[in-house]
Design a protein that fits this description.
With 276 residues, this protein is an alpha/beta fold. The chain has a single domain, classed as Rossmann fold (3-Layer(aba) Sandwich), CATH 3.40.50. 47% of the residues lie in helices and 11% in strands. It has a five-stranded parallel β-sheet, with helices on both faces. Strand 4, helix 4 and strand 5 form a beta-alpha-beta unit. Helix 1 crosses helix 5, helix 5 packs across helix 7 and helix 7 packs across helix 8. The chain starts with a strand and ends with a helix. About 4% of the residues have low confidence.
């Protein structure tokens, strides 16, 4: 049996990677991390998704563990962590989205994931994949989502551990975007005989869910998710604070403004080039 380790945040991307791995015959160790994030609902959704998959024919295929990083939120500064300022709203390309960076978060996670993957490789005398949902749409404001970071991180891992070459990375969506991820989710659900809506209602992408766990539709993470569902032509099965229609209309307005601003900027640059 092929083996993989996955950081299962409870979001759309990593949840789809879980489906992808199962559809391709992997036995998966899925790890979630409680680091004091305001959107703590994502951990509940991750556990619910694993339970749903287990109950629908895949019991024993997923080993799930939520790892609590006690005290971390008291020591780091980010608007995503409890005690930080409000999470900013808008499109990911706006400057204030840097406030959503959690310092060195992915390095902290990757160190634990690498240790688990190498332990599995040694215990079972096999190769192990570390699967990730990073994609072409991951933004420049998150340096630890860049391939340069991944390469340096993997080099440090192999330099610091015996037999670390038995662990390699698997990034099925590296050249795709959120829409490509959802399309693969559709294919995997069909292959696994799972209900698409039942899977994706057990995910969370919102950085600003309300006390009932309903998603906002103004934070950048939510805008990007809603944009992908619009492009797919499907209603997002998660519950939004003011309902799907309001969320969809809001994001369509943001996308329209974003396109118009880009066209105006391109036109201005073209005029300047002609003057020169």
């Amino acid at each position: 049996m092929k083996k993989a380790v996955l950081s299962l945040s409870g979001g759309m991307d990593s949840s789809t990677v879980l489906l992808h791995l199962l559809a391709n015959g992997y036995e998966v160790t899925a790890l979630s991390f409680d680091y004091g994030q305001k959107h703590h609902i994502e951990l509940k959704r991750a556990a619910e998704l694993v339970e749903y998959i287990n109950e629908n024919g895949y019991k024993g295929k997923i080993r799930y563990q939520c790892i609590t990083l006690i005290g971390l939120k008291e020591m780091i500064s980010s608007n995503l962590v409890k005690g930080g300022d409000d999470v900013p709203e808008g499109h990911y390309e706006e400057d204030n989205m840097k406030d959503t960076v959690v310092p060195n978060r992915n390095k902290i996670f990757s160190s634990i994931i690498q240790a688990v993957a190498l332990s599995i490789a040694n215990e079972h005398d096999c190769d192990v994949k570390i699967a990730m949902g990073i994609h072409a749409g991951d933004h420049a404001i998150y340096p630890d989502c860049r391939q340069e970071f991944r390469n340096a991180d993997y080099k440090a891992f192999t330099e610091g551990n015996w037999d670390a070459e038995r662990v390699t990375y698997y990034t099925p969506y590296l050249q795709g975007d959120k829409l490509d991820i959802l399309k693969d989710g559709e294919r995997c659900c069909e292959h696994l005989d799972l209900e698409f809506d039942e899977v994706y209602k057990r995910t969370n992408t919102s950085y600003k869910p309300d006390s009932l766990g309903r998603s906002d539709y103004k934070s950048a993470s939510s805008v990007e998710r809603i944009e992908a569902f619009i492009a797919l032509g499907k209603k997002d099965p998660v519950e939004y604070i003011d309902g799907w229609n309001v969320a969809k209309t809001h994001v369509e307005g943001i996308l329209s403004d974003h396109i118009n601003n880009k066209l105006n900027s391109d036109h201005f640059n073209e005029m300047n080039d002609n003057v020169e």
